[in-house]
């Protein structure tokens, strides 16, 4: 791993583009391993509670393996999994805590945005009148503002917790709550940059999600429920959603590993380099 991801110094933060490109290269170089683990994780996700814990732990396992590649300490899947399995329920706790926090924040932002949109709509309506064209323009502008506000707000908070499970996967003597707090602390001075990585990674994975997840779901909306065609499309939609998740999950987990390694590099002097050869 002599290539340093275009970073002049281990203590200088990677750019948004470098984080994403490094993650793509790492993902591609270990594609078979990561996809196999993603398949296992998604199969476990069908099982309530224990399966969800296994899914969360498998996610952390991919990040741990990716992190090992980044710091010149690659592990076998079996060795890494043994370490991760010891904290199975802590991974579920991290997943639940971050998911619930994001959900609460989403509703809070939606309420604030809704109130602000209502007030703004009344004010603009009083200023510019009630013509159909003006009302339409105002409505579109308010919608875009509300949508942008919620997206930026959610992605900022998600950025702060973006590596929440990685410390639990790679560090010793840490529990679920401490791992979440560790993510918040590591991203404290890099929230905007990490948010940029989240947004770019979202754009990168959007085509897969649209093709495998959202596309079939949209088709279902125009088909009469209960018909044979509806259930055929519904079954295909579930399968495609499963496949889409398998491809997207390892990419996000490698993104988290690179981010975590980069954040520690800048704050704690941990060198960040990628292996030569496959990468």
Notes on the structure:
It is a single chain. The chain is an all-alpha fold and 279 residues long. It contains 10 helices and no strands. α5 crosses α8 and α9 packs antiparallel against α10. The chain starts with 15 loop residues before the first helix and ends in an 11-residue tail after the last helix.
Features:
mainly alpha, 279 residues, globular, disordered C terminus
Give the uncertain stretches in residue-range form. Answer: 1-11, 271-279
Number of strands: 0
Overall pLDDT level: 87
Shape: globular
Helix- and strand-based class?
mainly alpha
Query: What is Rg?
Result: 21 Å
Q: Work out the helicity level.
A: over 70%
User: What percentage of amino acids are in beta strands?
Assistant: under 5%
Topology:
Elements (H helix, E strand, L loop, with lengths): L15 H14 L1 H14 L5 H21 L6 H9 L2 H41 L3 H29 L5 H5 L5 H11 L4 H30 L7 H41 L11
Helix pairs in contact: 1-9, 1-10, 2-3, 2-10, 3-4, 3-5, 3-10, 5-6, 5-8, 6-9, 9-10
């Amino acid at each position: 791993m002599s290539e340093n991801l275009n970073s002049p110094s281990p203590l200088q933060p990677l750019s948004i583009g470098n984080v994403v490109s490094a993650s793509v290269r790492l993902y591609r170089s270990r594609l078979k391993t990561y996809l196999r683990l993603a398949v296992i994780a998604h199969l476990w996700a069908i099982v309530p509670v224990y399966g969800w814990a296994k899914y969360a732990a498998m996610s952390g396992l991919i990040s741990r393996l990716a992190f090992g590649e980044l710091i010149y300490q690659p592990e076998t899947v079996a060795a890494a999994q043994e370490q991760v399995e010891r904290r199975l329920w802590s991974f579920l706790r991290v997943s639940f805590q971050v998911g619930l926090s994001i959900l609460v924040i989403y509703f809070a932002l939606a309420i604030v945005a809704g109130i602000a949109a209502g007030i703004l709509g009344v004010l603009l309506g009083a200023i510019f009148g009630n013509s159909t064209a003006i009302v339409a323009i105002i409505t579109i502008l308010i919608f875009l503002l509300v949508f942008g506000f919620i997206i930026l707000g959610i992605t900022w908070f998600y950025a702060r917790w973006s590596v929440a499970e990685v410390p639990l996967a790679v560090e010793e003597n840490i529990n679920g709550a401490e791992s979440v707090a560790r993510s918040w602390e590591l991203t404290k001075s890099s929230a905007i940059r990490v948010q940029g990585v989240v947004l770019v990674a979202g754009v990168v994975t959007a085509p897969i999600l649209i093709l495998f997840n959202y596309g079939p779901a949209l088709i279902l909306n125009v088909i009469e429920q209960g018909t044979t065609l509806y259930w055929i499309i519904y079954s295909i939609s579930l399968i495609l959603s499963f496949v889409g998740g398998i491809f997207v999950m390892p990419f996000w987990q490698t993104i988290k590993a690179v981010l975590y390694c980069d954040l520690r590099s800048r704050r704690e002097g941990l060198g960040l380099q990628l292996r030569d050869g496959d990468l």
